[in-house]
Amino acid sequence: MISAALAGHVAACRADMQAAQKEPDAWTALSGAIRQFAEHQIRAPGLNEALLGSHTAGDAFRADRQAHAAALEQLVARAHQQHVLRRGTTVADVRVVLMAISSLRPTHATRRSDAIRTLLDLLLAGLHSPDH
Question: Global pTM?
Answer without folding.
Answer: 0.86
